[in-house]
Amino acid sequence: MCWGFLYGCVQAVFYFNTWQFYSSLIFLIVLCCYFKPILNLLLAFIFAIFVVTIHFSLFYSYQFENTIDNGPAEITAKVAKVISNPPNSLSLIEIHELDGKSVPFYQTVHAQLSKDDDQYIFETGDLLVLKVKLRKFRSRMNRHSFDVEKYAFRNKLHFKGKVIEVIKHEKSSLELRQSYKQELVKVFENKNLGWLYYGLSTGDKSKVLAETKNQVIQLGIGHILAISGMHVGIVFLLCFSLAKIIVWFLLKIKANITLQGLNLNYFYCAFSLFIAFIYIYLCEFPVSALRAWFMAAIYSLIYFLHKKVSLPQTLTYTLSAILLIDPFSILDPGLFLSFVGFTTVVLVLKWTASNRLLSNSFLRLCLIQLSLMITLAPLSLMYFQGVSIAGLVVNLVLIPLLSFVIFPYLIACILLAGLFPNTDFLYVDDLLFFAFQYVTQNYLDVAWLAGPQLPSILVVLIYFCIAMLFSSFLRRFLLIPTITLASYFLVPRPLWQVDFFDVGHGTSVLVTSDKQAFLYDLGAKYFNYYSLFERVVLPEIKARDLNLKYTIISHPDKDHAGGIDELKQFDNFGSLAIFHNQQPFSFCQLKSISLGNVSIETIWPIDDMQSDNNNSCVVKLQGKGGSVLLTGDVEIDAEQRLVHEYDELLHSDILLVPHHGSKTSSSSSFLEAVKPTYGIVSRNYYSAWSLPHSEVIDRYASRQIKLIDTALSGQITIEFYQDGYHIKRLREENLFWLKHHTGF
Fold first, then answer.
1. CB under 8 Å to 260, separation ≥6 — which residues?
2. CB neighbours of 723 closer than 8 A, spacing ≥ 6?
3. Is the per-residue pLDDT at 603 higher than 70?
4. Cα 303 to Cα 132, 265, 307, distances in angstroms
5. Which of 72-76, 86-90, 396-400, 676-680 is most confident?
6. Under 8 Å CB-to-CB from 525, ≥6 apart: which residues?
7. Which end of the chain has the smaller Cβ count within 10 Å, N or C?
8. How many CB atoms lie within 10 A of CB 259?
């Protein structure tokens, strides 16, 4: 039954309303007709679909009036979190009432609101009545960037918008979790490693700087940034020991107390489970911690009932319980990292227990770390594009430190904060900070082995093969996933590829062939720090292990050249040498070069047209399978000159729609000369200029040119093969539930 439920959850969450989902259901129904034992599997599969659907309807979906897009709305809300303070004030608020309609008690509806007025400073827990301009939450979608919309789905973030007027602002008493976090901020704010202590105590990573986070991941100790199973295990064991000490102390001072005949292990386990549950409650139930708690509870129950349950059964029961509570927790990477890590540790301990050569505790710990590095490597490559080599050594030191030094230190700091504020007991903080600085300054360069990002299907196949090796029954079928895994590498790869990134109002296009890359424009940069080159383009380059050989900046507009500082930091303008002579805002030089299987030819500007837009660098890409014309922001004047100079040579299969679809571009004569099959529009979903313009849309439609829009399709990938090309739209790959959560 549990296997059917788990399989149903996977199919319903990841493949609902796809051919994979329906074929799985039909396959089980057909099997059920011939093998009656399959009936239980089918019933559990159907029950999983019911659980997923009910969870989505009750807790993740919120029906609201579409009038929010037409004008201001009035909301009653509570501040859930202050993301940033003035001058760029941004808050996460929990909506209780929207335009007079109350949010059901069982639902959580969040909105991310910006505020220009500094008259009111919001704090966590404040009660508000606001007039706001709300929009359904929508973000950019790129293959190797952080999936903001999946994050919004998991955190029930339905809207984003702007505060127009503060009608009412009241201070309110904080909830238990918020009070707990606020007090711990005061306890650890003056500590060198305050971000670590606060994170371990609350599960909140907001105090960790991005640079520090990367350092921790590269050292292979990223698990300290989240409340993992190890932390819950440490808390459980500490509480178990504390309970035994309390009982021993009571027996010493009360000699007349007799506990003979009582199994005190019941009390020890119940006390430990209760405190561990309080701990993960205060940390907002991270999925890896929930896994550990259920494991501890199941093992305790098994122990007291004198039952024998195998490791696969325990894992199955635990995972089923977690997915029954929230089936969408399967979207959390921590779930997979936690289960794979735990399974590895248990299997190694079981294997070494009967091996005298490996009975030494230190050798077993070394073997566990080596095994974890190997078994977690596919997941590490998928999520972080690399594997930590240093983690093998660092964790040998860190795990005992967490158990016997750091957690007791945290408890001492919290319990004695009132008597000894800002006290560094035994100089633990100073010593740990010195050690952390020493390791990051001297060994960080050799700590991380970078690699390409593995696709999820490949990771699943790898773990299937590993799992089947440990089952004598399944081992005979090992050839099936092995052949599937081998066939993955035999699938024809494109000769060259063009990616039009979803960068909102702006442009960034990456051309690749044979691991070499050419970049056309950098996208925008917001608030002088949020660079789309850094957030979108660089992750793509690193995930695919590409070498950026050439870069062209079409013209100096901020939506095309916003990431110039980050490009300099990345390659010191080395990729600008060929077309810009390392001068980023100079006209691109007219020349033709090859990049693997594609030729890159710059054909414009021929001379200065006294306009940044009309001086945009125009590039023709030509290779086997098709051609692409990249146009920047050229307008009608430049288009006419291009037609006069090149005419039929402009003909291309794919056209980057000039100037994001503005009516001052895409002239009839230009479209007649290019004769594209597809036009790619790079623009923002909520466009202030209502792009693409209706007249432009009509011009393309009248010529049967199909428009593909990054705002609607996300990142657009065009793969060129020997005899043609294939277009991929990233949003089409999005999960059914994410599409319906945002309403798009």
1. none
2. 625
3. yes
4. 56, 10, 7
5. 676-680
6. 531, 532, 533, 558, 562, 563, 565, 566
7. N
8. 11
